[in-house]
């Protein structure tokens, strides 16, 4: 299924890339901790395929391994516990040796996020800003999501800051985002 979908999205090396998606989720299910919110089934595969297709449309001349790796990272990294992130990064580095991800350009988004953090009288710590960007990336590839975590962990503030930042970006016309 993954191979056919990747071919339909314009990926030339779809056979080996689809195998890497399957291997990623198989290794994650074997090596990472067992959590209720971890999903390694078809829903997760479909999310990665959707993200990869969107990236292929946006960056048609980019290396396909880089696009798939970016999709896997965007879809999965935000949901992993801190103790599982190094294991996941190890799995990824084994499956994608030598593939270096270019840093996504979120400068305009980060500026809008920081402005809204200040407006809401919150502290712009890098961890919080990164979680807001991960939430944004998750929204791009999923139809729905839940934000889970400890009480007073910043969940409500994160989505409120993101909503305000996207609204500001819509008004300013700096990114193709809709007002929230």
Please outline the major beta sheet.
Answer: none
DSSP summary, beta strand count: 0
Query: How many H/I helices?
Result: 8
Query: What is the straight-line distance between the termini?
Result: 34 Å
On the 0-100 scale, what is the average pLDDT? 88
Q: In percent terms, what proportion of residues is strand?
A: under 5%
- Based on Cα principal axes, name the global outline: globular
SSE order in H/E notation? HHHHHHHH
Helix percent reads 55-70%
How are the SSEs placed, and which strands pair?
Layout: H1 2-8, H2 14-31, H3 42-58, H4 64-76, H5 85-95, H6 107-119, H7 126-141, H8 155-172
Helix pairs in contact: 1-2, 2-5, 3-4, 6-8, 7-8
Walk me through this protein's architecture.
- The chain has 180 residues and is an all-alpha fold.
- Helix content is 63%, strand content 0%.
- The chain has 8 helices and no strands.
- The chain has helices at residues 2-8, 14-31, 42-58, 64-76, 85-95, 107-119, 126-141, 155-172.
- Helix 1 crosses helix 2 and helix 7 (126-141) crosses helix 8.
- The longest helix is centred in the first third of the chain and has 18 residues, at 14-31.
- The N and C termini lie far apart (34 Å).
